[in-house]
Design brief:
globular, mainly beta, Porin, 7% helix, ten-stranded antiparallel barrel, 223 residues
C-alpha cells in the first residue's frame, strides 16, 4: 500500500508528460497519442520514471495570422487508477515558421486540472481540487521529417511563485506515413527543492528530472 500512497501523492502534485507543441497542426488535421513516464522517482530504489500514462488528442484550428494553431486535450490514465481525475486542455500556436537557416518557434498554453474527490477510500477532509497552468516556448528544427526541439517552460498553481523548467526532445518518424515516436527530458522546478514528504525524486542539484516517451498517430488532411 505504501507504493500506492506515494504514487497517489505524486500524481496529484506534479505535471505529467504530454505531446510536444513544437509544430501545431494545420486546420483539418488531428492527432492521437500515448505518453508514458514522468519525474524520476528514487523512493523505490533505482531512479525510474513515474509511470504516468497520458491519453491525448490534438485538433488543428483556424490559423491565426496565417500560422498554425491547434487545440490539445488529454487524460492521465494512471492517475485515474488511483482515484484521481487528472485532465488537461490547451492550445499551441506557431509564432515563426522554420526558415532556411532559422528554427521554428511556437508557444503552448495548457491548463491541468486534478481532483481526488472520486477516491472514496480517503477521508473527506483529504479530498482536494488542484489546478496548474503551464506555458511552453519551443524552438524546433526539422530534418527530413525528423524533429528536434527544446525550450523553456513555466508552471504555476495560481498561488505560489511560478516554477521554471527547460526541456529537450525529438519526434521521430521511422517510416513513411503518420506514425511518430517522441522522446523527451524535462528539468522541472529549476531552483526549487522537492517538498513532497516521503517521496524521493532524482534531482540534478535542484528540481526534478522528468523523462517521457510517447507514440502518436495523425490523420486528416494530406500527409
Amino acid at each position: 500500500m505504501r507504493v500506492a500512497v506515494l504514487l497517489s501523492a505524486a500524481l496529484s502534485a506534479i505535471g505529467c508528460g504530454t505531446m510536444n507543441g513544437a509544430r501545431p497542426l494545420e486546420q483539418g488535421k488531428h492527432a492521437v497519442g500515448l505518453t508514458f513516464g514522468g519525474p524520476l522517482l528514487t523512493s523505490l530504489g533505482p531512479a525510474i520514471p513515474l509511470p504516468n500514462l497520458v491519453i491525448e488528442g490534438k485538433s488543428g484550428l483556424d490559423p491565426i495570422k496565417g500560422r498554425a494553431t491547434d487545440l490539445n486535450y488529454g487524460l492521465n490514465a494512471t492517475a485515474a487508477a488511483f482515484g484521481i481525475v487528472d485532465v488537461h486542455a490547451g492550445a499551441s500556436h506557431l509564432l515563426k515558421a522554420q526558415g532556411a537557416s532559422s528554427p521554428a518557434i511556437s508557444i503552448t498554453e495548457r491548463l491541468h486540472l486534478a481532483s481526488n474527490h472520486l477516491d472514496t477510500t480517503k477521508p473527506s477532509e483529504t479530498r482536494a481540487f488542484y489546478a496548474m497552468n503551464q506555458i511552453d516556448f519551443t524552438v524546433s528544427r526539422e530534418f527530413s521529417r525528423q524533429l528536434v526541439y527544446g525550450g523553456g517552460a513555466l508552471y504555476w498553481n495560481f498561488v505560489n511563485t511560478p516554477s521554471p523548467a527547460y526541456f529537450v526532445g525529438t519526434q521521430l518518424r521511422p517510416m513513411k506515413g503518420r506514425f511518430s515516436i517522441q522522446l523527451e527530458a524535462r528539468h522541472m522546478a529549476v531552483g526549487f527543492v522537492p517538498e513532497i514528504q516521503d517521496v524521493s525524486w532524482y534531482s540534478p542539484g535542484s528540481g526534478v528530472l522528468s523523462v517521457t516517451a510517447g507514440i502518436g498517430f495523425d490523420f486528416g488532411g494530406s500527409k
